[in-house]
């Protein structure tokens, strides 16, 4: 029996904050029956340790899969009474920091793994991969998980790339800011006008060079906010301008007559 207990502690090592009482095989999923430890915990209001049990309640959360199957943990948690007279929180449900976060239906480590998936693949693709990994979530849940991820600290690049992109072609546009040296995405601004970019540049000092398309609006915003910054045109837009100028000069009618020459432009 000792060996089985050891094996359980290895397989479910992420649940070591709990006492595992039983594991049930339910074909499609593995159910772990567990309880919290009988240890005093601090009152969330006054911080006084208490182990006085007022009642018991259950929580069900999904954990990372085992054996390619979903793992569901049914945890018995205590409702504890604060022993400090006058404390506004007379009773409270205990939490298990780092494992069971308040109001969440997944363990912290499963939420972390799913967060990594949706960060790379977002909605539909994230949902499809999660099903393969035996932790299926819907597309909308995948997006909700993505929105819940904390944003990384904003870094101001030396060379800033500015370009527009269509949220809805010919209707809604946005401006994307990147580190032109690494390609890392820095920020996304609403619209593709000058004002949002000017405000961003004024509130995020440190940019020395701005690499942009031929848009007059972006150029004006950069001149107003960073008069000393060097403005350069990125390679793609430079070629685009040269190509359009050449087509104007040669004439579209001539290019159509000679498709081979047009393809080489
Ligand atoms: Zn208290």
From TrEMBL:
Domain Transposase IS204/IS1001/IS1096/IS1165 zinc-finger: 40-83
Ranges for domain Transposase IS204/IS1001/IS1096/IS1165 DDE: 160-246
Listed transmembrane segments: none
Name the record gives this protein: Transposase
Lineage of producing organism: Bacteria, Bacillati, Actinomycetota, Actinomycetes, Streptosporangiales
């Amino acid at each position: 029996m000792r060996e089985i207990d050891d094996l359980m502690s290895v397989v479910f090592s992420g649940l070591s904050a709990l006492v595992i009482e039983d594991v049930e095989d339910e074909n499609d999923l593995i159910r772990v029956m567990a309880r919290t430890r009988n240890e005093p915990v601090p009152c969330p209001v006054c911080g006084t340790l208490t182990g006085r049990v007022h009642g018991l309640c259950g929580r069900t959360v999904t954990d990372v899969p085992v054996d390619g199957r979903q793992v569901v943990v049914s945890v018995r948690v205590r409702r504890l009474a604060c022993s400090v007279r006058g404390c506004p929180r007379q009773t409270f449900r205990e939490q298990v920091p780092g494992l069971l976060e308040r109001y969440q239906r997944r363990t912290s480590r499963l939420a972390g793994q799913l967060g990594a998936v949706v960060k790379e693949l977002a909605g539909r693709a994230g949902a499809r991969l999660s099903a393969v990994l035996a932790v299926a979530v819907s597309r909308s849940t995948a997006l909700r998980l993505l929105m819940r991820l904390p944003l990384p600290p904003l870094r101001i690049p030396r060379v800033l790339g500015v370009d527009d992109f269509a949220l809805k072609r010919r209707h809604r546009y946005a401006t994307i800011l990147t580190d032109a040296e690494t390609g890392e995405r820095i920020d996304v601004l609403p619209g593709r006008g000058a004002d949002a970019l000017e405000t961003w540049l004024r509130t995020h000092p440190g940019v020395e060079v701005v690499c942009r398309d031929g848009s007059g609006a972006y150029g004006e915003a950069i001149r107003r906010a960073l008069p000393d910054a060097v403005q350069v045109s990125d390679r793609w837009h430079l070629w685009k301008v040269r190509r359009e100028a050449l087509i104007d000069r040669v004439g579209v009618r001539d290019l159509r007559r000679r498709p081979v020459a047009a393809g080489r432009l």
